[in-house]
Amino acid sequence: MTTWTVGQVADVFGVTVRTLHHYDEIGLLVPSERSAAGYRLYTDEDLRRLQQIVVYRRLELPLDEIASLLDGDEDPDVHLRRQREVVMQRFDELTELVVAIDRALEREMDERPATTAELKELFGDGFSDDYQQEAQERWGETDAWKQSAARTSRYTPADWAEVKAEMEAVNAAFVAALESGEPATGEAAMDAAEAHRLHIERRFYDLSHDVHRGLADMYVADPRFTKTYEDLAPGLAAYVRDAIHANADRHA
Amino acid sequence: MTTWTVGQVADVFGVTVRTLHHYDEIGLLVPSERSAAGYRLYTDEDLRRLQQIVVYRRLELPLDEIASLLDGDEDPDVHLRRQREVVMQRFDELTELVVAIDRALEREMDERPATTAELKELFGDGFSDDYQQEAQERWGETDAWKQSAARTSRYTPADWAEVKAEMEAVNAAFVAALESGEPATGEAAMDAAEAHRLHIERRFYDLSHDVHRGLADMYVADPRFTKTYEDLAPGLAAYVRDAIHANADRHA
DNA sequence: GGTCGCGCCTCACGCAGCGTGAGGGTCAAG
DNA sequence: CTTGACCCTCACGCTGCGTGAGGCGCGACC
């Protein structure tokens, strides 16, 4: 007996008969022989192919990719390496997941991530969803945005409250420097600028001094940012921009 | 504006509109309001629920479980802990996967895991798939079987050849002891028994001396095992059994 | 040679969790 | 009053099989 029936093959390889039927249907593994009665008969070669299929399935490759891998002229090496990357990525995701679950367990949903509504309560209408939407459109593809989104998605209302307090402290420092009559290139203003940069870096995303410059320019160029600062003190937007540039110069 | 439309909600929460429709269809998240034109309008409370859903989805919980979790009286803690275990298990699987991929890359499918056909070539008909089948039925649920299956599934033909050589060496030791006229309780026989146990432990599964006794009894009770030994030398099956028991006594 | 029981066959529908049109209203802006 | 971006409701498609239903094939035992 040098051929095997579905049941035998299924048992040995730990798959179901239906799975073998399916592989036959889609042409992934068509048994080389059939008995007079129409029984599928698998040869050694078929088994070798199935062996490969089973291995690739454990790698969670879709069946059509397995097919092209086994039939095609493509280098299995390439596929394997790609698959390795995919698995490693899943790995990272799972790591995050475990962390998320642990956090969820710790706080038992009491201090859960904040909703947009709560963010609005905290930050006022400056934090509108329309704005978030636009921000995503403008920055959605950048690493900074992704990093920021990844972090803030896990912030609780309490975290956000802290963030807000930090932001207000930085702004207050700017206002104080401005109202003391110190120029934007002065120590206090530059220190506030550096504090601003560190705040963002700590809470949202990596921020080099150069990128910080770009942000500063936007504070003046984009009326919504400008308004936030101008509401605090007239001329603050430009003052902040200049302070940030001066601070960047200082750290150049 | 204290309610949101599908598109707004979708953007902010990073899901698609279709997903929201789906959640509505299956009753997982039915928006509290509808506009005159039939637009779905999501309230703050709806968003809070969606927030929970999104979190649980990241945990890969099926939607119906999420529903019972959010609606039911069940303790979310229990679900979370269970989910954590599931994720950790996936973790282990992925670890194995990466190892498997690396091995596959190393040997580039050349020294791939052996097929049943190859095993038969190596071990003769004693290693029939029928037998494997039965073994799985008898032992399939035991840890030992699983452990063995997990290990052997990655054995290459070369590995199996080594296994076979080891087995033959052990058997030869038994035969030599038997033919030298030494009793089964003698040193040489007991040493062979211990070598037998260590061989299985190294290649297949953990094997205590007590479990080893059970195996020994089966060698006499099950005609196929008996045959394997009797073919080597008459009376060997019983001799092996006795030697194993003696060895187990020695290590008690 | 009947018939038991297991294994094989071919349909064919079902499942999750949406994706992806089709075909048609709605709403703010110009 | 039109345009264009949204919204609506069907409704079929996709993966990778699970799960019967209804019906032959085959070795064993009577």
Question: What this model shows, in words?
Answer:
- Chains A, B: Keywords: Activator, DNA-binding, Transcription, Transcription regulation.
- The structure is a homodimer of 252-residue chains.
- Chain A is an all-alpha fold.
- Chain A folds into three domains: 6-71, Multidrug-efflux Transporter Regulator, Chain: A, Domain 2 (Orthogonal Bundle); 75-110; 116-250, Globin-like.
- Chain A has 13 helices and two strands; from the N terminus they run H-H-E-E-H-H-H-H-H-H-H-H-H-H-H.
- Chain A has a two-stranded antiparallel ribbon with strand order 1-2.
- In chain A, helix 6 runs parallel beside helix 9 and helix 11 packs across helix 12 (223-232).
- Chain A is rod-shaped.
- Residues 118-131 of chain A have low confidence and may be disordered.
- The A-B interface holds A 4, 8, 11-12, 14, 44, 47-48, 51-52, 55, 58-60, 76-77, 80-81, 83-84, 87-88, 90-91, 94, 97-98, 100-102, 104-105, 108-109, 112-113, 115-117, 129-130, 132-133, 136 and B 4, 8, 11-12, 44, 47-48, 51-52, 55, 58-60, 76-77, 80-81, 83-84, 87-88, 90-91, 94, 97-98, 100-102, 104-105, 108-109, 112-113, 115-117, 129-130, 132-133, 136, 149.
- The first copy, chain A, binds a DNA duplex (30 and 30 nucleotides) through residues 5-7, 16-19, 21-22, 26, 35-40, 62-64.
